[in-house]
């Protein structure tokens, strides 16, 4: 398989971008293309190393996840209720992802990514420019309707380059959630949907892999775990003090660069 340096570079890209509204899959596709790392096995690697980033969320929000297994008195987002809310959020993208799995793999191209980056950026700016009076401020105020609504917006992330965190944060804000709440729930809701997506992709692509690939994949997961820890902490500190517009501007700058250097 490709060099360990490739695994390290891609793992850092994954970890730093997975929970920012800039699209980790889009950046992985672009980075992989620049490194000459492409094909079905590369696409599987890009999905599997998300497990490292997932573990970063579990570590940082350990109390919340433990509360799902052991209900906490007085905490609404815990136990079966919390699990049910996460299932509602995961359901739309799981169903649509199963139906469109083969089609989605064909969207792992620089041109598709640049289109998603631009479209997502415009929507982010529109959402941030709207008057926003939050009705939901804390995680314990999550309702089934809000959880399902965020899940429907999460389906936009099936388009590589759009960004799962951007779609869920924007969806949460449009449905009345405070930006910081939408970001926090976006991180937690990432765990079940990303575990499901990774597991399904591995089942579909198992025949492409061999024991010799294990070290390469392990490096990718460790690197994405460490870099995701840093990215989540920084983003949480920023999101309460700034809008998503700087991330949208970054996407709008990146999209034409992708066209000039990688598509045109």
Number of helical elements: 13
- Poorly predicted runs: none
First-to-last CA distance? 29 Å
Shape designation: globular
Query: Count the strands?
Result: 0
Indicate the radius of gyration in whole angstroms. Answer: 18 Å
Average pLDDT, rounded to a whole number, is: 90
Number of domains: 1
Sketch the topology as an H/E string, one letter per element. Answer: HHHHHHHHHHHHH
Query: What proportion of the residues is helical, as a percent range?
Result: over 70%
Q: Give the helix/strand class.
A: mainly alpha
**Strand content bin:** under 5%
Q: How many strands, which pairing sense, and closed or not: the largest β-sheet? A: none
Summarize the structure.
With 264 residues, the protein is mostly helical.
Architecture overview:
The protein has 13 helices and no strands. The protein has 264 residues and is an all-alpha fold. It has one domain. It is globular, with a radius of gyration of 18 Å. It starts with a helix and ends with a helix. The mean pLDDT is 90.
Looking at this protein, list some descriptive labels.
mainly alpha, 73% helix, globular
Topology of helices and strands:
Blueprint: H1 4-17, H2 24-34, H3 40-48, H4 50-60, H5 62-69, H6 79-99, H7 101-105, H8 110-129, H9 144-154, H10 164-174, H11 179-205, H12 214-239, H13 245-263
